[in-house]
Amino acid sequence: MKELKYSLTAKISAFCLLYLNGYILLISAYNFVVGGRIEELVVRNIWPFSWFLTSAGIMLPLTIVVSILLFSFLLAAAGTQRNSEELVLNRWDRIPTDLISLGCGTLFLLGVIILPITGGLGIGTITSYYDLSTDVGLGIYLSLILFYLYSIFMLWCITIVKRLRTQTLLTNTLFYRLYDLLRKIFLHLTEVYQAGVAVIIFGLINITVIFNMHSGLAMLFFLMFNSAVLLFILYLALQVSQLKQNMQKIAAGQLKVNLDSTKFTLTFKEQAQALNAISAGLQKAVEERMSSERLKTELITNVSHDIKTPLTSIINYVDLLKKTALENEQALAYLDVLEQKSYRLKDLIEDLMEASKASTGNLTVDLTEINVNELLKQITGEYDERLRERGLEVIQTVPGEKVVINGDRRHLSRLLENLFSNVKKYAQPQTRVYLDLEATATEMKLIIKNISAEKLNISPEELMERFVRGDKARHTEGSGLGLSIARSLAEIQGGKFNIKIVGDLFEVELIFPVLKEEDLLQSG
Amino acid sequence: MGQFNILVCDDDKEIVAAIEIYLANEGYQIKTAYNGREALAILNSEQVDLVIMDIMMPEMDGIRATVKIREDKNIPIIMLSAKSEDTDKILGLNMGADDYLTKPFNPLELIARVKAQLRRYASLGSREVKADVYASGGLVLDDQQKLVTVDDKPVNLTPLEYNILKLLLINKGRVFSTDQIYEKVWQEAPVASDNLVSVHIRHLREKIEIDPKNPIYIKVVWGLGYKIERL
After folding, report:
1. Which residue of A has its CA nearest to B212?
2. Distances from the Cα of A229 to the Cαs of A209, A224, A226, in angstroms?
3. Would you say B177 and B194 are in contact if contact means Cβ atoms under 8 Å apart?
4. Per-residue DSSP letters for B161-180?
5. Of these four, A170, A196, A431, B89, which has the most CB atoms within 10 Å of its CB?
6. d(C-alpha B97, C-alpha B109), whole Å
7. What tens digit of pLDDT does each residue of B107-122 get?
8. Per the CB < 8 Å rule, is A375 touching B222?
9. Rounded to an integer, what distance in angstroms lies between the CA atom of residue B151 and that of residue B114?
10. CB A349 within 8 A of CB A308
């Protein structure tokens, strides 16, 4: 069956058979309608039709079925070719649909006109008045004309089917080609010219319609056209607002935007695509940054481990060396320096790791309720003597009622330790240090104020940068990471960390949201 | 204190040698291994009372070795590693280590922890409980003699420090806020913003702790109070 589809002979045979079958069908149908009349009138003696004509009751359904089968076969076989998956279009199929339809229509009409003129009469009259058995010439002539009409109709059907199946029915029309050309010209214009052309076309159409307003049809068209234009403008406005929303999303930091650009038209399609590209680019940049930060932290952690192992030996053997009875005073002094510096190196490494983890959010945060009053008592007790040694007097202003916040015990104590050890290191000796705790219903503010020993000709932002210290000479202890760590630690717990510098007055402000009474009761 | 055998396992030979010197000074017998596999071999053939184990080692790391040891032994294992992250500590302790110390370490602290582990291992369930004697690890408070010792060395405390220590030792594991301690020890109503208690605690720590910055006995629970761990 499949092979049959590819065979040209089969196609031609089917084509001819369909014609013959149609011929019989016509006569059978006529016979069926007219009944016995045709028998007496005309064709008893025409060979080979006589038998068919006498048995119209069988022949009519039979020929209808055969027609359908053959017609279907021809349509199914149209354009198929051996060894080719796709339909093959010939020269005729490439002629624009509207043109070929017009051509076929004209030729068909010509045939229909010629038929009665040359025959002198219509088909109905032929069968009534002419005896076909005697006028064989007329019979043949009639058949030829019918074959001509049949051929034109079939060829048109076949090419239409091919076009339908290759989806070129509408695109391959003169009208579409013209539309496409205009569309391309329009799309090549910049947005401003597009808008201009659109408005002009809109105006021209409306003026034309308004001048013909007397007709009811024009009125209807006017309403429909303007409604359509209105809808289209609303549709464009919708796209603009969608673009705007997504742009705002990106601006607000929500970088993941994926617009379906096929739902946008004209210039908005390009804009949607561009927005998608921006979103993708930003996401990629953020991801890259994150992974590079992670790598940095990993690198610092690994390097720290590698440094710590030899450092362990240095510290241990310096200690052992000190314990062996060294006679030389000088040597003991040197050993002290070695010991101090090795411990300093240890502190530096630990600070560095802490800073890198805190700034990349690689620290686990375990939030619990923390009584700030208690915490302050503990930390000030811890530093009481160390500060007093340097003549620093701490003046505390703490409210009587309990201030409770959500924080991580270790991170918060580390943060305060950093701040107090900064006070110890950098405050001008023999001055006062102010520690104020202020609490409102929603937040608490812890303020530490001290007078700097060194000139602070540096901005707060700079001071919080890693490795920056107030004294550029860097001769004090400390890694220059304290404030950077403190800020990161405050932020990962949901707090705020500010620095103010007024002359030599150095002020640190730590702000945390306060837990309310009912929150405390709820959590038991 | 009897002869204890301690296995020191670290791939850095100098660190092993240093630990050996410190512990030998305390009278312990030392065995050495340079990776997890060697440590397991020694443990199979010899009597060992405590293991000091590094984590990052070739052939078999300390974590895997610890898991192996724990299959049939419950001797104390102290991990000694350059890895100082919380996650590493938690992993080590979960895998069966009894204690975790980070490098670089304070030798005195290592010795104290070794002693605490051995004391607990040796006297597990068999400690004779004397009346009015309270202890946590190497820290012992004899309330009859009013005497405090750390690893058998007497410590001089002021009456207030003594009372604070007694309060915390009697209620081991319980956290006391500064106000509670003030009420119980000073027997007065607490005054807001007074850091008297924390100052005393600091003094106390300087006297009884090996490294006051990393206390073993008196722990700070920041924003809550102080407690003494059950050791």
Report:
1. A382
2. 15, 9, 5
3. no
4. HHHHHHHHHHTTT--B-HHH
5. B89
6. 17
7. 888 998 898 888 878 7
8. yes
9. 11
10. yes
